[in-house]
Amino acid sequence: MFAYHDVGARCLRVLLAHGIHVPLVVTHADDPRENIWFERVADVAAKNELPAIAPSDPNADDVVARIAASAPDFLFSFYYRSMLTPALLALPRRGALNMHGSLLPKYRGRAPVNWAVLHGERHTGATLHYMTDKPDAGDIVAQQAVPILPDDTAADVLRKVAVAAEIALDAALPALIAGAGPRFVQDLAQGSYFGGRTPEDGRIDWSRSAQQIHDLVRAVAPPYPGAITTIAGAPARILTTRVIDNSSIAAGEPVLHVGDGRIIVRCGGGGTLAVCALEIDGAPIDAAGVLARFGCTPVPLGR
């Protein structure tokens, strides 16, 4: 089993609950530069006295040889971050399966939950599918949908997806073990690939609508890096917003102002946002603080 993150931890517990023998857990060493806000698969493996390794290269000859020596029936990948080569995928006698954080074929590739929130989707989910040389393109075994509510952040949705992954795997395992699991060919034309995201991808384009900006803020809200901008030239991070008016009628130059004790932004692409959590120069600031800092509003916004 190759696994990381909350999805990996939950799916490992499902395998064990079904009495599956897991001869080896392959996970990642935590990156000290990353905010580790999720459950560690290595801890779940240790608690259950399972052998676990965290190789820098999961496709290295010694790793492949160790897995081959166990003669696995299945190979599972649960939110593991590295691509597995055909040499690894060919080892399990009954197939290699991956749990992906979207309703395939939509949002194949990296950061599927963040992309779904960014695009204003109302539903996403988890998909268990067979692995092929092409990422997230193999036959589907099971899917479980979850709702995305209007103010859900990507972290909120990922917690739901982790539970959806647990449900999908738990339901699919008996048939897989019996050799009777369903397989549905994906229609890849119904979805697209998406790449990884960087903190700079969270920069706000104030010429867009209030709803689009709100969706960006939700998609990158903590524990992710947050939406970034400048306010009167000062670096700022917007952590939480709420749509007050979702009009799509262009509003002209975007501006920030304070009214009735709230920080309000009129967005260039139409609509109005309430900024509920804001940092300027790395420090939290409220409506009174904005007035004290800038003297009056409106305050110009930048990129």
Keywords:
303 residues, alpha+beta, Rossmann fold, 2 domains, six-stranded antiparallel β-barrel, five-stranded mixed beta sheet, 8 helices, 26% strand, elongated
In short:
With 303 residues, this protein is of the alpha+beta class. Helices cover 28% and strands 26% of the residues.
What order do the helices and strands come in, and which of them pair?
Layout (H helix, E strand, L loop, with lengths): L1 E2 L1 H13 L7 E2 L14 H7 L4 E2 L7 H9 L5 E4 L7 H4 L6 E5 L7 E2 L2 H7 L4 E8 L9 E8 L6 H25 L14 E2 L15 H11 L6 E5 L2 E12 L9 E5 L2 E5 L5 E9 L2 E3 L1 H8 L4 E4 L1
Parallel strand pairs: 1-4, 2-3, 4-5, 6-9
Antiparallel strand pairs: 5-7, 7-8, 10-11, 10-16, 11-14, 12-13, 12-16, 13-14, 14-15
Helix pairs in contact: 1-2, 1-6, 5-6, 5-7
Describe this structure as you would to a colleague.
This protein has 303 residues and is an alpha+beta fold. It has two domains: 2-194, Rossmann fold, CATH 3.40.50; 199-302, Roll (Methionyl-tRNA Fmet Formyltransferase, Chain A, domain 2), CATH 3.10.25. 28% of the residues lie in helices and 26% in strands. It has helices at 5-17, 41-47, 61-69, 86-89, 112-118, 154-178, 210-220, 287-294, and strands at 2-3, 25-26, 52-53, 75-78, 96-100, 108-109, 123-130, 140-147, 193-194, 227-231, 234-245, 255-259, 262-266, 272-280, 283-285, 299-302. The strands form four sheets. A six-stranded antiparallel β-barrel has the order 10-11-14-13-12-16. Strand 10 (227-231) and strand 11 form a beta hairpin.
